[in-house]
Design brief:
mainly alpha, globular
């Protein structure tokens, strides 16, 4: 049975189940559209990173807006140079959102239960990225 031949109640239930994933996607798409239209490389459009302003150190998110701007404009190399972990985060969001929608359409709950080792590993990688980008030889990781 396809969506066109399913009863209206089933279509309404499916639409209701997809309301939250659709709203999340709309919010993320709106944010990316704004960052794509308002260039973070131009001074004065966005506030400066408080950690960078106060200490001169790059946080793990520094360059995230620049990378999002580059992704919107299809410049993957510039996006990776601005903040590679952010680009990986955008890709992870896309995959997880797609899994969420597929499971929702099947009527299955989304169950995210990452093993603690994965979470600790991701945290450690972000910490190493942050430390290396602030060392003299890590200048190539500056946004």
């Amino acid at each position: 049975m396809n969506a066109a031949s399913s009863p209206p109640a089933t279509r309404r239930a499916r639409a209701a189940r997809l309301a939250v994933p659709t709203a999340i996607l709309a919010a993320v798409a709106g944010a990316f559209a704004y960052v794509g239209a308002v260039d973070p490389n131009e001074p004065g459009h966005y506030p400066a990173c408080p950690l960078l302003r106060l200490t001169g150190l790059y946080c793990p998110g520094c360059g995230g807006l620049r990378s999002a701007h580059a992704v919107v404009h299809g410049d993957l190399l510039t996006a990776l140079q601005a903040n590679a972990p952010a680009v990986l985060g955008y890709a992870a969001f896309a995959v997880l959102w797609t899994v969420w929608v597929v499971r929702t359409l099947r009527g299955e709950p989304l169950r995210l239960d990452p093993p603690p080792l994965l979470l600790w590993s991701l945290g450690a990688l972000l910490l190493v990225f942050t430390v290396v980008r602030n060392l003299p030889f890590g200048g190539w990781l500056h946004p």
